[in-house]
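TA notes. Do not distribute before section.
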Amino acid sequence: MEYQIEKCYFQNIKNGKDILLDDGRIIANTQLTFDPPKPKSYAFCSDTVYNEAIIPIIEKVDVLYHESTFLQSEEVLAAKTMHTTAMEAATIAQKAEVKQLVLGHYSTRYDNIGLFKEEATTIFPNVLLADDAKSFDF
């Protein structure tokens, strides 16, 4: 439905007010507007060792990108090089109660990045794998 509403009323519409047209009709604000999408939150943790101190900072974000340079079999190497395993990233996601975990920053020693998802989903179910030129729509 199209209304001939002068620009001087636009701010009132944005402020949630109904509009009274010159002919006496009232147009409810709900006919002219819609609620915006809910804002989404995102956290990015990379080049970091496993550290639960970040949990309060990233708690309940919609999407957490967390490095997972190594698999759990290289846990000692991960700690030595100040990186994280897929299982550790999933543990952070679980404890922080995030909605979605995206893993990335994999060591080139692995030919199959699918192993990172397999490992992480044993702890946290909602896991996606980042890869070159890959994009996500959340």
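Switch to the second chain here.
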Amino acid sequence: MSLVAKLKRPGPNGFGYGSTAEEVTRGLDLSGRTILITGCNSGIGLESFRVLASRGAHIIAAARTVEKAERAAREVGAGDRTTAVACELSDPSSVEACAETLARQGRPIDVLMLNAGIMALPKAKTVHGLELQFFTNHIGHALLTDRVMDLLSDNARIVVLSSTAHQRTPKGGIDFDNLDGSQGYDPWKFYGQSKLANLLYARELARRLEGTGKTANAVHPGVIKTGLGRHLNPVAAGLFSVFGPLLLKNVPQGAATQCYVAVHPEVEGVSGGYFADCNPAESSAHGRDPVLARKLWDETERILDRVSAG
């Protein structure tokens, strides 16, 4: 059996590499459930929006602007099942305003899908004294989660988009002494660091939610050709174009794992896991390190206190 065939072989639950979001949610009635999706307006966020809304869920569609969220709702034909909100993850005031809007509405949230992200910025950029990928992918989502925690329903599921890229990081996994990139910056290692932070955050959040009925899991969606890769260099972009049809997932396949973990009955009560291809997967050693997870949590809380006060 070829490597590609092995990768695409279904897992024990019948789903696998080639499964789509529609397939893993087929037959599910999500009427009465509310799902918040960040980055709802493109890529796998938009596909998750489309499919979960088609199953009857009300979607809180979060994008950088309300206009982008509303446009996405029109695109997927879910205008009457959508609450559009602005949530610019690199701007704490935007995240706080989003949470305040949702608190005023008082709608319980059954799924918090932390999907948005940026990848491999070619040059280091900082915001609030932190490298932009780390801030956007991790800190912004941690702030949003903290601020909407009281809105989560008793059995809410938190789904954090990580990546197999979490295996490619600076030494030690999280370089706490260089979170701004001033002591050296590598686009892919800093992306990997942000994705490891997503994974560790989900693990530690799951531990802290034990006994509440709420769960938190991280997912690797697969390698997908979406707008996320717009910063790839010309050589990498060319390879993606040539080998993409063989090695890359399409967007419906890429959205499958996060939709599976978000709503499938088989994942009810499962927490602290890492999923890929709609099945449990093994992470790196750093991704399984509870000491590192708690250290990141403590540092994240200090950062949130600082940026919120500012």
